[in-house]
Structure formats: structure tokens, C-alpha cells
Amino acid sequence: MLHAQPFFFLRHGETDWNRERRVQGQTDIPLNEKGIAQAHSAKSLLVGCGVDVVCCSPLRRAHDTALIVNEALKCQVVIMGDLREVGLGSREGQRKGNWYSQWKRGVTPPGAESHRNFIERALRGINAALARNGRVLIVAHGGVYSAVEQYGELVRHGEIPNCTPVRHDPPTRDVPRWAAQVVSRPQ
User: pTM of this prediction?
Assistant: First the structure.
């Protein structure tokens, strides 16, 4: 279960492997020029959103995105190991295929984290971030966001785009489910 705290989620900026549609996992691929530009654009969208702390994955693509966004937010940046992307072992660097859907069903590639263990770890990292004081921005990965979707019971409309900030609000009496909304302009 997600800790009932409003928060923002930002998937890291684009990398060359994103552009090539290759699975990165925990391979530490840096942002490309487009990814750096995306992070600068996201920065302007998040100004005025009331973010008090930025929690991010230790992988460079997420950490560098967090640092760029934080140029405007001027918050504490906290690196959290449980927010790193799934380790996919021998499949890192490959394109998604049947192996990926099999992994989600419990067939773990050599050297990879099981889907179940990954989702549990990601949820632990998200909840640790949400337990911090103030409004949190989590800067992490598409795989980590799948834990938000699963435990927030959000309907997936495709992969979360690189550097698109999404605001999440916990259930209320009037809205009994988590709500997610793309931040399209400064609030």
C-alpha cells in the first residue's frame, strides 16, 4: 500500500538507450542532449508546486535529472537505493520482447531481480520517500513507476514519458482512489 501522502513523480530524462528502445535496468546510462533539455523543461513545470524534498535513484540518469530540476526547486536531494531501476541481468541492453512479459509473470532471466522482489523493493523506496517531511518529488524510472501504478491502482495508459511530471493525490472520501495528473504548467 502507498503511504497516503500527495507527491510528484518524474521519470528521468531520455538516454541513448531510451531512444534505441533498449532496456537499461541498472546499467548506468547517462542522459543524452535531449534528456538534459527535457530535465530543464520539467524544472520550469515544477516551480511553484511546493516541493520540499527531492528523492531520487542513485543511477546517473535519475540523479542528474534530479540535480537539474533542483536548480529551480532548491530543496534537499536525497539519494535512495530502493528507487533504482530493476536489475534485469543478462537482458539489459536488449529490446523488450516475450522475455519481458514472462519476467512479469515470474520467469526471471539469469542475474535479474524477480518481478515480485523488484516491485516490493520499489514500493519500499517510494514509501520511505513519502514518509519524509513535506511534499516529495520522486525522480526515478519507468519500472519504479509501475509500483506506483500497481499499489495506487492507477490505470496504465502506456509507458510514463521521460521527464513528464505527474502529481499524485491519495484517496479521499470524495475520490476513493489515487488520482494522477500530468503537470502541464506551473501551479
Answer: 0.95
